[in-house]
């Protein structure tokens, strides 16, 4: 088992001390561990690993770091699908910005990049669909009103 796989296993099981030790000792890749922690609601592990929600912001600014974007999207979708509201609040500390959704919905020309708005909207929509499919409607409370009707489509 590689250090990255061991870290992912520790994150999945919620073994905070082991995860911290593995990361410190090997400074290995954390993507798998972050998704495992998000999926299983191990927020304490997410906090000790180097993940910053601003990867959404970098994507908006045209710094397309696809790896960071794909990781953030996986985290959001997995957390929503598994009813991990605490993880979603960690990724979006102040909630997703209403302007993202309203400007996309209303097709306003704004300071936000249209491709970014579309990408973020699609991630949120997929997260909500997966959450609703499993009956986790509490996740909808994190997203602004343009998504209220999504559950009834």
Automatic annotation (TrEMBL):
InterPro entries: Ankyrin_rpt-contain_sf
Highest rank taxon of the organism: Eukaryota
UniProt name for this protein: Ankyrin repeat-containing domain
Protein source organism: Phytophthora cactorum
């Amino acid at each position: 088992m590689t250090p990255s796989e061991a870290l992912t296993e520790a994150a999945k099981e919620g073994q905070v001390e082991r995860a911290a030790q593995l990361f410190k000792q090997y400074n290995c890749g954390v993507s798998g561990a972050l998704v495992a922690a998000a999926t299983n609601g191990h927020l304490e592990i997410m906090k000790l690993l180097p993940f910053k929600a601003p990867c959404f912001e970098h994507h908006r600014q045209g710094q397309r770091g696809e790896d960071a974007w794909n990781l953030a999207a996986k985290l959001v979708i997995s957390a929503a699908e598994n009813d991990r509201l605490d993880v979603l609040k960690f990724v979006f500390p102040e909630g997703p910005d209403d302007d993202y959704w309203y400007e996309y919905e209303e097709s306003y020309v704004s300071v936000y990049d249209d491709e970014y708005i579309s990408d973020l909207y699609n991630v949120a929509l997929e997260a909500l669909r997966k959450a609703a499919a499993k009956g986790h409607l509490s996740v909808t409370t994190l997203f602004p009103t343009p998504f209220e009707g999504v559950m009834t489509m």
